[in-house]
Design a protein that fits this description.
This protein is mainly alpha-helical. The chain has 3 domains: 47 residues, no CATH class; 78 residues; 68 residues, no CATH class. Helix content is 50%, strand content 7%. It contains 9 helices and 6 strands, in the order αββββββαααααααα. The strands form 3 sheets. A two-stranded parallel sheet has the order 1-4. The chain has a two-stranded antiparallel ribbon with strand order 2-3. Helix 2 runs antiparallel to helix 3, helix 2 runs parallel beside helix 5 and helix 3 packs antiparallel against helix 5. It starts with a helix and ends with a helix.
Length: 215
């Protein structure tokens, strides 16, 4: 960390140790004791089990229950306003637009990053919010799973089209396919890897060749 501190000093930047957090992600079976604390400018950095980064709660065990709970709690607050407006007899289309802008946008925050590794319980909790909104609006709403798939396909398509993207080479078309829409699967030793964005995106592209071009 001394290099980081020196770099900040060289560029006249100040590190706020009180706002800096340390999270240790360690899945080794044989852990060699405790990890040494990190110090910045003589002050010890607080070690936490999770932290919030760009609106997403990241936990030390890379589970997403904390993140899901926070999103559901925030979405429920918006449901209150949706109910109030529904009582004013606004059209279903207006309520639908409100839902997409204020509730679905919350539930789908960086969804391609975390949804694939959510537990069944967390997924049901997210979908429960959608069902409540659906009863209020009285119109069918896209499920959270379908929103996730659409976002993954859209992100994957953008990466495939951009040859300068650092992860462009992860999407390798299989030789011998007529349409060129089947991609080489990405290996993974753990379920966490298999359900992460890139392997999931490759599977979705292969399973939905039409959607891969239109999503």
């Amino acid at each position: 960390m001394w290099r980081q501190t020196a770099c900040h000093k060289l560029n006249n930047l100040a590190l706020n140790t009180k706002k800096t957090k340390e999270v240790i992600v360690d899945f080794r079976r044989n852990k060699d004791g405790t990890h040494s604390p990190v110090h910045l400018s003589g002050e010890e950095v607080e070690r936490v089990t999770s932290f919030k980064f760009l609106g997403v709660h990241i936990s030390e065990d890379l589970s997403w229950t904390t993140n899901t709970s926070a999103l559901v709690k925030k979405a429920h607050k918006r449901i209150f306003f949706l109910r109030k407006l529904a009582k004013l007899r606004l059209s279903s289309q207006v309520l639908m637009n409100l839902y997409r802008c204020t509730i679905e946008s919350i539930l789908s925050t960086c969804i391609s990053v975390w949804y694939g590794n959510c537990t069944v319980k967390d997924k049901k909790s997210l979908q429960r919010v959608v069902k409540i909104a659906q009863r209020i609006i009285k119109m069918p709403l896209p499920s959270i799973a379908s929103v996730y798939e659409k976002r993954c396909l859209r992100s994957a398509r953008n990466i495939i089209r951009d040859s300068s993207h650092p992860n462009h080479t992860l999407f390798v078309p299989l030789r011998g396919t007529r349409s060129g829409t089947r991609y080489r699967s990405l290996p993974g030793r753990t379920n966490r890897t298999t359900h992460s964005f890139f392997p999931s995106a490759v599977r979705l592209l292969t399973m939905n060749p039409t959607l891969s071009h239109t999503a």
